[in-house]
Write a sequence for this structure.
């Protein structure tokens, strides 16, 4: 049965970043099985950030969680990155890695994999350093607020990226649509939105806890993106071969859209 909605307060209270990372961001599991979900998403992100026009000065990551994989290809094309998330513990976990602190998650296998996609596996240490330098701020945000970073006002960015966040943060389609309008305000007209969203998923679980997920189809996401003032430029569905007890996810949508010029 679909899980009851788990809102931002539940994330703040019970989302354990280290358990999340261990469960979903190892390149292979304890039986040595490859993490196809992650590898697929890394390939999509590489492809999307290679598209024409996906470059500029500033990038904002919305709902970053404790992860950096979504920034590995992105950091080659933007000068400054601001990462946003609702929960204190996820921002803290991300900072641990950024500051190279003891106990930080080991992203090396993932960084190496992305370097290999980009043509040079040997560059992983350089890439880590580049990313650590480029992430300038890690701030609190709430995607359900008109200004997600309220009371802070960020200058609109050249690009925003959001992976696996809105479908977790939004209780229904109306909230999802308005969250897209809210985060759309963080990007300049003419700037880009890069999204990775799971489709037809109602829950994911780890560490004996279940988190709800808004059930979405490709057209629902695309319509919401268009409705938030963007033109969809790239949209690709990859099926996720089930047989996974941790989630009922069936596919992943990778999408790039460009914010329309405002008509005022
Ligand atoms: N982007 C990461 C994390 C996804 S997990 C990844 O790709 O793995 C979902 C994230 O959404 C969590 O980090 C959670 O803290 C965040 N979140 C939940 N509700 C939110 C809200 N209302 N505003 C902003 N972030 C929220």
């Amino acid at each position: 049965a679909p899980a009851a909605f788990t809102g931002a307060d539940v994330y703040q209270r019970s989302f354990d970043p280290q358990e999340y990372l261990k469960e979903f961001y190892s390149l292979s599991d304890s039986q040595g099985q490859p993490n196809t979900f992650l590898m697929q998403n890394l390939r999509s992100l590489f492809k999307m950030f290679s598209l024409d026009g996906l470059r500029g000065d500033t990038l904002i990551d919305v709902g970053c969680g404790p992860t950096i994989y979504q920034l590995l290809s992105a950091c080659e094309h933007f000068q400054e990155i601001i990462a946003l998330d609702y929960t204190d513990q996820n921002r803290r976990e991300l900072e641990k890695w950024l500051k190279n602190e003891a106990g930080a998650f080991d992203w090396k296998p993932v960084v190496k994999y992305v370097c290999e996609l980009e043509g040079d596996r040997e560059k992983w240490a350089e890439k880590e350093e580049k990313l650590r330098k480029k992430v300038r701020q890690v701030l609190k945000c709430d995607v359900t607020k008109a200004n997600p970073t309220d009371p802070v006002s960020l200058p609109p960015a050249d690009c925003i990226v959001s992976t696996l966040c809105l479908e977790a943060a939004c209780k229904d389609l109306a909230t999802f649509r308005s969250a897209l309008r809210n985060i759309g305000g963080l990007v300049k007209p003419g700037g880009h939105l890069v999204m990775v969203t799971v489709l037809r998923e109602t829950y994911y679980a780890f560490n004996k806890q279940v988190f709800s997920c808004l059930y979405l189809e490709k057209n629902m996401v695309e319509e919401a993106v268009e409705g938030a003032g963007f033109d969809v430029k790239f949209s690709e569905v990859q099926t996720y071969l089930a047989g996974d007890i941790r989630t009922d996810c069936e596919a992943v949508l990778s999408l790039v859209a460009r914010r329309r010029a405002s008509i005022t």
Q: What stands out?
A: The domain at 8-259 is CATH 3.40.50.150 (Rossmann fold). The chain has nine helices and nine strands. The radius of gyration is 17 Å.
